[in-house]
Design goal:
2 copies of one chain form a homodimer. By secondary structure, chain A is mainly alpha-helical. Chain A contains 7 helices and 2 strands; from the N terminus they run αααααββαα. In chain A, strands 1-2 form a two-stranded antiparallel sheet. The first copy, chain A, is elongated. Chain A starts with 26 loop residues before the first helix and ends with a helix. Chain A binds a DNA duplex (30 and 30 nucleotides) through residues 5-6, 8-10, 75-77, 85-92, 108, 111-115.
Chain lengths: 162, 162
DNA sequence: TCATGATGATCAGCATCGCTGATCATCCGC
DNA sequence: GCGGATGATCAGCGATGCTGATCATCATGA
């Protein structure tokens, strides 16, 4: 798990077994991969956002923190390119991260136009928590699939994501 | 193809081979199915929306028209339940569909509170066009996958979509 | 060295979207 | 017939992302 964007039409939905009151999706639409992806996104986002909310994290923050942890400090542009998020959107996200003290802007030593965005200790802590949640969801959601099947799924999604 | 919801952060992106200027998604995030689904959604939506725009159709309309074609007239609530779209959102979507004359509200013969939403001839025509686009995208996007692999992918997405 | 175009960050304003909560009419079970 | 559920609608809110502009800075090449 770990999701970046907010999907529209986010009907709150319960976790895995879930289905009680939900109508199954009509077959004439589930034929379409795009529809399935959209609805999967809707569900996964709503589940993950719920968990994030409990940790006072917003969904897009998780991805950024992950990236900063992995690659070290980088500029907002770089983050945007890697995550495919608009530059102006990134400004607001980093603003929020700074407000929560999960990250901070440092001056870029080589380029005075740019900042280096850096994860803080608090950011690291919250990332650890959120990652754990993400791993757990991952495991639950894919529980029915064997390792080779998961490879196919991951490869397919990568293709679709471009 | 055929997508219902608008994803956030919709960087316009070119079709299949695509990648020229796009950085590949970082591996530390593509490990997460949720992230992949989000990014796949982002890309698929932006491609499909572009095509829809050319036909003066909005993305959510495609799903509704499909459903009306398949099942015949039904109430807004019913549409919402099947597509997992909020009732108040549905009002606006049907408003737009009526404005474009792709669908119309008829009085429900058994229930005077409800409408029966009905697809029009114009709606049928535009649906045919959009469906063709969807099928083509579908074929292009999954070209590298065999039929058994596609089954796995579809089943997985269905699981994720709940 | 200096002019020019590219690039990083930011902001105001816009459009979209979906949801909350309320309202009103109607249905249906008791 | 009463009272709680249900269908449609609306105003208003909050979130989101994007467009286009601005400003500072960098980098290139004349």
């Amino acid at each position: 798990m770990l999701i970046i964007m907010k999907p529209a039409a986010c009907v709150p939905m319960p976790l895995l077994p879930g289905g009680e009151s939900l109508e199954p999706l009509p077959e004439c639409l589930t034929r379409y991969t795009g529809f399935l992806v959209a609805k999967a996104h809707q569900r996964l986002f709503s589940i993950f956002a719920e968990e994030c909310r409990k940790q006072a994290v917003e969904v897009p923050h998780a991805g950024i923190l992950h990236l900063l942890q992995e690659f070290g400090p980088m500029s907002q542009q770089e983050l945007g390119r890697k995550l495919r998020i608009d530059r102006t959107t990134m400004v607001k996200i980093i603003d929020a991260l700074e407000k929560h003290k999960f990250a901070r802007r440092k001056n870029h030593p080589q380029d005075r136009r740019a900042y280096l965005v850096e994860i803080t200790d608090a950011g690291g802590k919250v990332l650890a928590i959120v990652s754990k949640i993400a791993e757990r969801m991952e495991a639950e959601l894919l529980v029915r699939y064997s390792e080779p099947e998961r490879k196919i799924i991951r490869r397919a999604l990568l293709t679709l994501a471009g």
